């Protein structure tokens, strides 16, 4: 959804009073790469984390964020969803977004399955409750606030921004919290979406 007015978007986290505006107007597109990590996925004592890289290609402003996965259960799919939720939540105001994930679960859920789940009261095609419905509802709200185009990339295939998001997710799974702004030369990010 494009906003009809000029708005300076920020990568601004809750409680962040600094002015880290990275987009000059609502016509700019933010590029986001997300990833989740979960050691011992499906086993006892899993440790999960999420990571995301947000970039304004027009200004070169970049935000790297990561954190530990909270709540229960701790799974890789929840980590992947949380990465997308945290990245979109970091945007101040409505934005046009190109979001790249290596999670087919997130990609298909957001682009193919979500609307059907909603029509069926958040039930799957088999009539069972959708797994991770709490996160899917949060993501659904954010997807109504932003115009998001999803892109899929194979994980661990050498895509620089995806590898960075993966590294951030691993940091989060190890208990690290990251919120780091920096600047890269426009066009320095990979040509892959």
UniProtKB/TrEMBL annotation:
In terms of Gene3D superfamilies, this protein maps to:
Ribonuclease H-like superfamily/Ribonuclease H
Which prosthetic group or cofactor does it need? Answer: Mg(2+)
Question: How is the cofactor bound here?
Answer: Binds 1 Mg(2+) ion per subunit. May bind a second metal ion at a regulatory site, or after substrate binding.
Instruction: Give the multimer and partner information.
Output: Monomer.
The species this protein was found in: Franzmannia pantelleriensis
Compartments in which it is found: Cytoplasm
Q: Which residues bind Mg(2+) 2?
A: 35, 166
Q: Which residues form the RNase H type-1 domain?
A: 26-174
Keyword hit for Transport: no
Name assigned to this protein: Ribonuclease H
Question: In which residues is Mg(2+) 1 bound?
Answer: 35, 80, 102
Query: What PANTHER family does UniProt report for this protein, alphabetically?
Result: RIBONUCLEASE H1
**Regions annotated as coiled coil:** none
**HAMAP family membership:** RNase_H (MF_00042)
Report the function annotation for this chain: Endonuclease that specifically degrades the RNA of RNA-DNA hybrids.
- One GO BP annotation here? DNA replication, removal of RNA primer
- What family is it from? Belongs to the RNase H family.
The record ties this protein, via InterPro entries, to: RNase_H (IPR050092), RNaseH-like_sf (IPR012337), RNaseH_domain (IPR002156), RNaseH_sf (IPR036397), RNaseHI (IPR022892)
Tell me its EC number(s), please.
3.1.26.4
Molecular function (GO) terms for this protein are:
magnesium ion binding; nucleic acid binding; RNA-DNA hybrid ribonuclease activity
């Amino acid at each position: 959804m494009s906003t009809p007015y000029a708005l300076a978007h920020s990568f601004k986290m809750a409680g962040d009073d600094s002015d880290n505006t990275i987009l000059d107007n609502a016509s700019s597109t933010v590029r986001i790469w997300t990833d989740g990590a979960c050691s011992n996925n499906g086993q006892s004592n899993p440790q999960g984390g999420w990571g995301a890289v947000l970039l304004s290609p027009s200004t070169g402003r970049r935000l790297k964020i990561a954190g530990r996965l909270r709540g229960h259960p701790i799974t890789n799919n929840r980590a992947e969803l949380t990465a997308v939720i945290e990245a979109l939540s970091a945007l101040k105001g409505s934005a046009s977004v190109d979001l790249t994930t290596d999670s087919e679960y997130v990609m298909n859920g957001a682009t193919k399955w979500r609307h059907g789940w909603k029509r069926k009261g958040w039930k799957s095609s088999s009539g069972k409750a959708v797994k991770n419905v709490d996160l899917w509802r949060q993501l659904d709200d954010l997807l109504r606030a932003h115009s998001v185009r999803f892109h899929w990339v194979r994980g661990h295939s050498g895509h620089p921004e995806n590898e960075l998001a993966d590294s951030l997710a691993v940091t989060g799974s190890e208990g690290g919290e990251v919120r780091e702004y920096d600047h890269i030369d426009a066009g320095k990010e990979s040509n892959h979406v």
